[in-house]
């Protein structure tokens, strides 16, 4: 049985991510945890110093959270009616990132599925700040669903890698789960810069080839492009249903999310983006 965490701010963006998750895991026995975290809109230091409860701020926010969670739960049950799925609600007074970390540990969460931005996210921002922090701090895979992306079976998976990481089971099991459930093909994409693979890279590539033998796969090598351009180019030439990366915290991922230049080179995720943590501890 899978435990799936679905953070929601009750926006249509988050509803879209929820429906994607319900479709993706429709053949799996799952417990879905609908999570909403709340803090009163005027929750400042002066209220903390006094007592926010005396102003009724926390109670009001909690009532709204619980009411909206129940509404989303009913909406799910009406739209999907899947006997494999159990939906539970979590309304918590906390910041989203902190609560996600707690719930991942407490509920043994397998995957977090969330939208790429919040209700007030600006159109030019690829990922809202909450999504970025969850992607970088969660100790389990996070699947980010682009705004308005309609579900399609993930037949073609794109997995860029520099072969700098020793592939472990917890890196590859999420890929295998999807590939086996949806008869997917894994497209491994390596960007070279004119140099041969190092001994370590070749060893890691051999390990990956051996482990991916269980599913359909194709290895691709491209040169004279940076990683962002290579991914975009591959997606333009091939129908890719999901982008998958391991967040090994060493260069590409940090550049992707935290350097402002990224917005000028047009790297926009148009497909669901699964981020697998390099470490689970």
Automatic annotation (TrEMBL):
Residues 1-146 form the UspA domain. CDD domains: USP-like (cd00293). InterPro entries: Rossmann-like_a/b/a_fold (IPR014729), Universal_stress_UspA (IPR006015), UspA (IPR006016). Pfam families: Usp. Transmembrane segments: none annotated. Belongs to the universal stress protein A family. This is Nucleotide-binding universal stress UspA family protein.
